[in-house]
Amino acid sequence: MSEEKDLEQLKREAAEKAKEAAKKRLAEKQAAEAKNKEESKEENIDIAKAKAAAAAKAKAAALAKQKAKLQAEEATASNEDSESSEEVNIDIAKQKAAAAAKAKAAALAKQKAAEAASADTSEGDDKATAKAKAAAAAKAKAAALAKQKAAEAASADTSEGDDKATAKAKAAAAAKAKAAALAKQKAAGGASSDDDLAKAKAKAVAAAKAKAAALAKQKAAEKAGEGSTDDELAKAKAKAVAAAKAKAAAAAKAKAAAGGGGDDLAKEKAKAIAAAKAKAAAAAKAKAAAGGAPGEVVEEEATPSPNQKYLDKYVKVITEHLGGDVLEDSYINTLSKDVPTLVAKPDTYYRIAQFLKFNEQLGFDYLSELHGTDFQSHMEMYVHLYSYKNRQSVALKVKLDRDEPTTASLQPLWEGANWPEREAFDLLGIKFEGHPNLTRILLPDDWVGHPLRKDYEPFDVEV
Hints:
With 463 residues, the protein is an alpha/beta fold.
């Protein structure tokens, strides 16, 4: 029994010890937790203080920015106020200047009106005096001209007789020849009478006399150096046309009596009118050359082409790089929109074309046209090029032997030359060396000849 009590006592003691140790551990744990809580509270306080300080600084910076912004707005507002006041002042100054200008213009207008009123009284007298002087000068000039013409007519009388006689003889011979021809024509027609023949002869003689008189007057005027005016030239032309019409009418009547057709009549009229015009033109030239008349025709100098500067540029660049003997000719083609035109030699044709494309100053990168032409004496190739960089055009030509027309192909330079060269080969027989496919393009391969040659004869007569 006593052993059991000792065991129980030991168990109780051990349990109490364990309990005290547990309490002690719990107390230590609680103390440690309390300590940790205090430390964390201190850390939290420090963090909160730091956050508060940062927030205070940010708030201060924001307030400073706001104040600076307000100050800037106040400054701009003050500037705007000053500028608006300046604009108002400028407007006022402008209004004052405009008013002053108007007042000055009104004063000038009044001054001019006063001057005009004072000048009206003397202007009439000046005009009358000027008119009187002009009339006197005109009369004096007319008198001088009359004297000059009288002197010229007196000096021309000596030679006029011989000229008239010669002209009359020529006219009579022409009239006789014409009358003989008409007589033959009427005899062949078998429908004329002696009266008609006599009338025709009389009309022809009258026309010949009139013509001889006109020629005599013209020669007298030329020898005397008589100056003709525009009115006299117009009268001479009108007389020549009238004479031609009378002559044509006489011929028409003669042919109508002889049974001539309407086509012959129209031809005779056309010939007579053409002869009259030619005669009038010849008379005008002769008079102008004889005396330097006021009405003489002076050919105006041709206006230089606006593209001449481009042609000069092309020729200069080509001769500087390729030599002065590569071009056969160069000119402005006035019949084709004044395009600058270069004529190459057969052996320099490809070199010039290549240079026109690849030279930096020229740069003709587009071939817009290529065709050939048969001029019977030779063949000719025409190439039209355009530079998109410079917005300029140029034409390149080359003359080829007609019997063996051969030249270099431009297809390696411009692909657009492919089919046009085939067409020139097909229709003209021009051969292009270096072409990748030089065959007919319009006609079948077995076609005989080249239809655009001037000497072309169809092989098939039914075509």
